[in-house]
Inverse folding.
C-alpha cells in the first residue's frame, strides 16, 4: 500500500510539474509573440497599403466576423444580418454576425490574448474607448475617412453629423472608431395625453413646473423612474449639471484630485434641483417609492400612464413599444433649461454606437469596406424605423411620417439640428470614478436622503480619498 | 542464474489501473484549476488589465489597497452576514421542518417538495420573480399587506434601505430546502428503535431531538455547515442578479466585487485583474481557514456507532 501511495504521488508530481512547464512554455511562446506578430502583421499591412479599397470591390470568397453588441433575436441583430446578406450579394464576401451583447469586453479580452479577434466590433463608443482603444488594441483607421463613401462620390468623413463623429478626443489627429448610429437622452412622454391636456412643450423649468404640478393634481406622478438603476437616476443629476453648471463642468470636477472644483456654486445648484424633485424636496416629482423599483418596473409604469414623463435614453422607445397602448404616441423634448444656468436648451447629447477594427484583424480591407457599406443611406434610413438616429447627416427629410416613432424622432432630429454644442452622455464621466464615487452619493440625493450641500461635502471627501 | 521476477498481485494490478484512470481527470484539474490558481496568485502582486501579456509587478500594493477599500469592506461584511445570519436561519428552519417532516405528519412529502422547489430555480428567475413580487406599484406582497390591513408594513423592498435584507431572505428561501433534504436523509438513517425506546422511557419530542437526533447526525450537520460556509462565501449568481448588472454596489459580496473589478462586467468598466486576483486570494484563504477550522473541530469528536 505504501509503495502504491509513493508511486501515485510520484505520478501526480511528475504530471503537475510537466503540466506547469508545458503551459508556461506555451504561454511564453505567446509572450514573445509581439515581435513575431509584428513580422506576421507586416504582410497584412503591406497588403492593406497595396490593396486600394475601391467602391464595390469584389471580395469573392472572403469571410469576416462582425461582433455586434445586441442579443439574439433583437431588432438590431436582424438589421445586421440583413445587411450582411446584402453585402454578400454586392461584394461576394461573407459577414458572420456574432451576438456579443452588453459585456463584449469580457469576450474581447481573451480574444485579444488568444489572437483570435473579430474583424469588426460594433459597440458603444465609451465602451470601445474604455476597453479597446485605450488599451491600444484597436487599428488606426484615419485613412478610411479620406476615402470615398460607399454610395456617394464624396469623402467618407463629410457624410457624418459632427455630433456623432467628434465625441471623443483624437490622439494626434488619428481616428479609431466609425460612428454608425446615434442616441440621445431627454424627456419622453405620451404625446396623445400631453396634447389632450393642452400643454405646450416646455423650454425651461419655469414652464415645466406648472405642467408637472397639473399632472400631480390629477394623481399622476410627473416622473416614473427605475430607482434601482443608479445610472438611470443620474440622468437627472447629469442633465441639471449640463443645464445649470454647463457642459464640461461635471467632467472637470470629476478629474480634479483636490476636488476643489466642486466648490462651484452652480454644481451645488444643479444637485439642489435634484434634491428639490426628490421625495424630500419641495417639488416631489417622482412616482411613490421609486427607490424600490427595479428595471423595467419604472418604465413599465410610465408606459402604463402612471407617470407622465421619463427622463431616459432613446432606447426607451424600443424597450417599451410592445407594452404601450394603441393610442400612445411617443413624444420627446430636450431636458428644459434652468433660468440663470450656464447651459442652454441647445446643448444636445450624442451617444454613439459604431465600429472599430481590432489591430489583429486579418481582413482589414474587407472590414473597412463593410463599415463604409454599413454607413450607406439605405441602412441609415432603416435605422430610424428601429428607432435610432442616423450618424449620417442630411437624412432628416427621409424620416417617413408613417414611422411609428415619427414625433419623437423628428423632435430629436430637430434638437440635433439646433444644437450649438454637443456632449457625450454623463458628460463623459463614466468609468471607475463614476461607479465608485459618484453613483452611491447621487443616489442618496435623488432618494432625498441627503441634501445638495451634504452631497458636495461628501463627494469632496470621497474624491480626495479616491485620488489618493 | 535466473533473475527473480517481481510478482504483482491482482490487487496491485487493479491499483495500477486506477492510476491510469485518474490521469485524464487529474490533467483537467491541473490545467483548469491548479495552474490558473498559481497564475492568479502571481497576478495578485501585479497591476494588470488583462489586455496584454505584460503585468507590472507592484508587490503587496493590491493587498494594502484592499484593506482600505470601503467597497471591499462592505462586500466582505455582506458575505459574512449572509454566512452567519443566513446560516443560522437556514439551519434553524431546516431542523424545525426536518423534525416535523420525519414524523408521521400528513402531506409531508408535499411540503418537502414545496420547500425544496426554490433550490432548483435559476438565480436570475428567482430575482425576476422577487422583483415583480416586491414592486412598489403592482407587487403582490405590498398588495396583500394592504388588503389585510397591514399596509404599514408595505415597503419599497428593493430600495437601498431594505434590499440587502430582502436578498438575505431570498437566499434563505432558496437554500433551506436543500439542507432540509440532507437532514431528512440523515435522520432517516437513524434506527427507529432508538426513537421508540426513548419514547417508552418518557422522553418528549424536544428531548428526542436534542439527545438522539442531533448527536446521531452530528457529522452530517458539520458537513452541511462546511458546505454552507463555502457556498455562502462564494455566493455570486443570486446576488449579482439582484445588483442589476452591478448597478447596486451596496449589495456586492466578495465574489461579485471580484467580478466587477476584474472583468468590467455588466455596466462596470473596470479592468483590474491584478487587484481582483488579490481579492480572490484573500477569499480563498478565508475559505481554507474556515474549512481547516471545521475539520479540526469535527476530528476532535468521537465516532458514534449504532
Amino acid at each position: 500500500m505504501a509503495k502504491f501511495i509513493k508511486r501515485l504521488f510520484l505520478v501526480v508530481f511528475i504530471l503537475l510539474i510537466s503540466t506547469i512547464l508545458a503551459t508556461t512554455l506555451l504561454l511564453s511562446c505567446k509572450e514573445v509573440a509581439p515581435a513575431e506578430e509584428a513580422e506576421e502583421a507586416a504582410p497584412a499591412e503591406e497588403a492593406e497599403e497595396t490593396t486600394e479599397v475601391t467602391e464595390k470591390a469584389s471580395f469573392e470568397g472572403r469571410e469576416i466576423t462582425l461582433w455586434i453588441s445586441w442579443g439574439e433575436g433583437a431588432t438590431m441583430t436582424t438589421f445586421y444580418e440583413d445587411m450582411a446578406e446584402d453585402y454578400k450579394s454586392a461584394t461576394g464576401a461573407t459577414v458572420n454576425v456574432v451576438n456579443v451583447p452588453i459585456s463584449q469586453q469580457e469576450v474581447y479580452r481573451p480574444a485579444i490574448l488568444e489572437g483570435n479577434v473579430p474583424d469588426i466590433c460594433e459597440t458603444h463608443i465609451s465602451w470601445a474607448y474604455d476597453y479597446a482603444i485605450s488599451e491600444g488594441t484597436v487599428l488606426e483607421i484615419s485613412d478610411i475617412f479620406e476615402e470615398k463613401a460607399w454610395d456617394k462620390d464624396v469623402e467618407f468623413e463629410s457624410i457624418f453629423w459632427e455630433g456623432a463623429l467628434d465625441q471623443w478626443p483624437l490622439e494626434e489627429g488619428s481616428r479609431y472608431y466609425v460612428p454608425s448610429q446615434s442616441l440621445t437622452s431627454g424627456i419622453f412622454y405620451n404625446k396623445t395625453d400631453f396634447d389632450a391636456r393642452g400643454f405646450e412643450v416646455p423650454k425651461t423649468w419655469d414652464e415645466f413646473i406648472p405642467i408637472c404640478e397639473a399632472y400631480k393634481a390629477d394623481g399622476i406622478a410627473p416622473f416614473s423612474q427605475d430607482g434601482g438603476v443608479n445610472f438611470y437616476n443620474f440622468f437627472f443629476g447629469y442633465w441639471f449639471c449640463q443645464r445649470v453648471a454647463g457642459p464640461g463642468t461635471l467632467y472637470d470636477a470629476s478629474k480634479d484630485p483636490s476636488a476643489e472644483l466642486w466648490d462651484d456654486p452652480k454644481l451645488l445648484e444643479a444637485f439642489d434641483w435634484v434634491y428639490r424633485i426628490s421625495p424630500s424636496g419641495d417639488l416631489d416629482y417622482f412616482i411613490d417609492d421609486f427607490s424600490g423599483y427595479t428595471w423595467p418596473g419604472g418604465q413599465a409604469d410610465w408606459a402604463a400612464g402612471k407617470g407622465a414623463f421619463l427622463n431616459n435614453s432613446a432606447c426607451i422607445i424600443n424597450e417599451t413599444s410592445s407594452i404601450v397602448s394603441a393610442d400612445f404616441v411617443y413624444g420627446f423634448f430636450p431636458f428644459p433649461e434652468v433660468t440663470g444656468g450656464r447651459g442652454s436648451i441647445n446643448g444636445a447629447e450624442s451617444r454613439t454606437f459604431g465600429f472599430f477594427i481590432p489591430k489583429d484583424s486579418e481582413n482589414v480591407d474587407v472590414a473597412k469596406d463593410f463599415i463604409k457599406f454599413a454607413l450607406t443611406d439605405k441602412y441609415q434610413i432603416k435605422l430610424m424605423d428601429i428607432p435610432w438616429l442616423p450618424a449620417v447627416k442630411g437624412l432628416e427629410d427621409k424620416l417617413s411620417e408613417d414611422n411609428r416613432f415619427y414625433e419623437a424622432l423628428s423632435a430629436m432630429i430637430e434638437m440635433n439640428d439646433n444644437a450649438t454644442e454637443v456632449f457625450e452622455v454623463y458628460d463623459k464621466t463614466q468609468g471607475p470614478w463614476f461607479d465608485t464615487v459618484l453613483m452611491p452619493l447621487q443616489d442618496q440625493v435623488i432618494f432625498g436622503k441627503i441634501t445638495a450641500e451634504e452631497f458636495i461635502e461628501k463627494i469632496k471627501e470621497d474624491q480626495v480619498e479616491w485620488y489618493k | 542464474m535466473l533473475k527473480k521476477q517481481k510478482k504483482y498481485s491482482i490487487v496491485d494490478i487493479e491499483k495500477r489501473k486506477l492510476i491510469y484512470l485518474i490521469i485524464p481527470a487529474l490533467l483537467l484539474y491541473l490545467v483548469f484549476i491548479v495552474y490558473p490558481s498559481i497564475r492568479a496568485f502571481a497576478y495578485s502582486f501585479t497591476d494588470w488589465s488583462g489586455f496584454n501579456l505584460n503585468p507590472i509587478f507592484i508587490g503587496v500594493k493590491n493587498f494594502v489597497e484592499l484593506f482600505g477599500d470601503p467597497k471591499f469592506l462592505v462586500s466582505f461584511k455582506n458575505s459574512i452576514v449572509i454566512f452567519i445570519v443566513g446560516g443560522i436561519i437556514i439551519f434553524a428552519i431546516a431542523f424545525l421542518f426536518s423534525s416535523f417532516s420525519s414524523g408521521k405528519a400528513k402531506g409531508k412529502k408535499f411540503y418537502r417538495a414545496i420547500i425544496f422547489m426554490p433550490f432548483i430555480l435559476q438565480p436570475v428567475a428567482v430575482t425576476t420573480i422577487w422583483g415583480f413580487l416586491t414592486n412598489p406599484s403592482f407587487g403582490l406582497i405590498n398588495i396583500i399587506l394592504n388588503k389585510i390591513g397591514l399596509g404599514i408594513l408595505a415597503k419599497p423592498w428593493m430600495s437601498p434601505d431594505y434590499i440587502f435584507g430582502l436578498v438575505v431572505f431570498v437566499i434563505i428561501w432558496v437554500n433551506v430546502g436543500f439542507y432540509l433534504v440532507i437532514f431528512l436523509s440523515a435522520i432517516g438513517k437513524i434506527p427507529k428503535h432508538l426513537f421508540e425506546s426513548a419514547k417508552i422511557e418518557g422522553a418528549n419530542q424536544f428531548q428526542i431531538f436534542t439527545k438522539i437526533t442531533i448527536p446521531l447526525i452530528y457529522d452530517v450537520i458539520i458537513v452541511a455547515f462546511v458546505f454552507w460556509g463555502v457556498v455562502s462565501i462564494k455566493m455570486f449568481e443570486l446576488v449579482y442578479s439582484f445588483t442589476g448588472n452591478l448597478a447596486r454596489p451596496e449589495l456586492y459580496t466578495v465574489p461579485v466585487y471580484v467580478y466587477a473589478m476584474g472583468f468590467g462586467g455588466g455596466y462596470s468598466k473596470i479592468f483590474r485583474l491584478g487587484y481582483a486576483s488579490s481579492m480572490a486570494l484573500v477569499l480563498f484563504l478565508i475559505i481554507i481557514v474556515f474549512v481547516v477550522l471545521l475539520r479540526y473541530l469535527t476530528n476532535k469528536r468521537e465516532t458514534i456507532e449504532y
The two ends of chain B are 58 Å apart (CA to CA). Chain B touches chain A through 47 residues (CB under 8 Å). The mean pLDDT of chain B is 87.
